[in-house]
Amino acid sequence: MNLRSESAAGARPPEGLPERLRDARTAEALCRGLLDTARDAIAIVDRDGRIALINARGERLLGYEHDALVGRTFELLVPERYRTRYRGHWAEYAATPGVRSMAPQTVFLFALRKDSREFAAEVDLSPIETPGGTLAAAVIREVTERNLGEDPGAMRERSELEAKDLRTQEANRLTSELLAHMSHDLRTPLNAIIGFADLMFNGKVGPVSDLHKEYLGDILNSSHHLLQLLNDMLALAKAGLPRARRVPHGG
Q1: 3-state DSSP assignment of residue 184
Q2: Where are the beta strands (DSSP E) in 51-207?
Q3: Residues 223, 224, 228: CA angle, nearest 5 degrees
Q4: Which residue of 20, 70, 119, 221 has the smallest Cβ count within 10 Å?
Q5: Which residues constitute the domain of residue 120?
Q6: DSSP string, 22-65
Q7: Is 31 in a helix, a strand, or coil?
Q8: pLDDT tens profile 182-234
């Protein structure tokens, strides 16, 4: 996927622009008219990723009316399974605007039409400097078998594998967070119970009757057993095993 060689960065209205063209509505209409002459779908996106303008070719390609897209996030046009990757691309672009593609040369995105149909696409971004801040011109091109030189089914399969890998990474991250919470929220109070029961069992806080000592012994045995089960479960989860082994306990 080739990057665009020309940049829209630094583009500003000429100093000699007639006063009648400096009106906001007139300028927007002029901009829209120029964009509508383009053969590619083009969306103007602000720093928050919201669509400020889209040309007629974009409306036809995506199946939306102009007003239905303006103000919505560009993420709306990305299938759900690719949105994590899209957010990463957009965050990187917003931090350092420049002329670039939304994906490396060997990776292709899929865009989402209003009717929920997907199509292979490449998205190139170019910054546009305005008095109100930096915008981005997103050029969206549908990738076909003819101009890609690759079977669309194979391309979709590769993209789905990449999305699956991203989901696996996210699942691993969530598992790590869960293990950290379990380690703290379960083991900490359990260790406290064992500690206090042990003090009472050994008479460190005053004498206890034989019956109470028997009860405290049961509390200690059960707590140690539960702690061992918890440690085994956490160890197995960290190792990525599908299920924990059953640990028999006495009646």
Answers
A1: helix
A2: 51-54, 100-101, 109-112, 118-130, 133-142
A3: 115
A4: 20
A5: 19-148
A6: -SHHHHHHHHHHHHHT-SSEEEEE-TTSBEEEE-HHHHHHHT--
A7: helix
A8: 777 888 888 889 998 999 988 888 888 889 889 889 999 999 988 888 888 77
Q: Are 9 and 126 in contact (CB under 8 A)?
A: yes
**Residues ≥6 apart with Cβ < 8 Å to 19:** none
> Domain check: are 28 and 139 in the same one?
yes
Of 25, 11, 66, 22, nearest to 43 by C-alpha is: 66
Query: Are the beta carbons of 192 and 225 closer than 8 angstroms?
Result: no
Instruction: Give the CATH number for residue 80.
Output: 3.30.450.20
Burial class (CB in 10 A: 0-12, 13-18, 19+), 122: buried
DSSP state at residue 73:
B
Nearest to 232 by CA among 166, 170, 187, 193: 187
Neighbours of 110 (CB within 10 A): 19
Each residue's pLDDT tens digit, 33-73: 788 888 889 999 988 889 988 999 999 999 999 899 999 99
Alpha carbons 137 and 140: distance in angstroms, whole number? 10
